[in-house]
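# step 3/5: fold
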Amino acid sequence: MIAITHRVSPNIHQCELTHRVREPLDLDRARRQHAAYQDVLRRHGFSVEELTVNEHLPDSVFVEDTAVVLDEIAVLCRPGAPSRREEVAGIRPALARYRPLAAIQAPGTLDGGDVLRVGKTLFVGLSLRTNRDGMEQLRAILAPHGYQVKPVQVHGCLHLKTAVTAADDHTLVAYPAWIDMEPFGGFRVLEVPEEEAEAANILRLHRSVLVAQGFARTERMLRQAGFSVETVDISELRKAEAGLTCSSLLVSP
């Protein structure tokens, strides 16, 4: 497995913020936390590639938003924030080594953080960053490959995966107050407590799930549900509105 990541930009303090108040951000600490995150991926068998091509762009570490990577194809996104659209060209050559490419075109917008894949279904958050045109383009691109695309209304957070992620193909971790849960009927849903709402963004790994450090109740809930849990500190990156899924594009061989 390949994990495509990007070096933390020295301009990360100028990142886009939607639901968080801007705070002072320690670049060295953010880079140490990102390195620890990469080390977790390596321990789980991922070969980590760290790009630097977009280092001048404040949000470039959050590579998830630039593409949706599936077994058959990678779809280059068109981020909803205009300041982030330049990132996509820098990511293209890295993905082209592993997948045929397609791309979302104007007026569509699509952030990878709004796309949750569970099996052959992609749930797409309709948010401030992703519009219906972007979702419909994704549906058309993926239809020949047998994927279903289902819209989900997002109303309380930045991206769909801020509020819901998959621990396995049958279990979701969610903070339901931020999204419409109706499209997720049939799943087991583990609800994070209100004071740990940001813990809904977990990263599913080969043998365990990764939870952001500091969310003890969510960690305990997942262990009680039968999951092996690891934690990593991303407290500095969270000041830039990050979650665990944001900082990598995971590519199967």
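# step 4/5: annotate
The longest strand covers residues 121-126.
# step 5/5: archive (pending)
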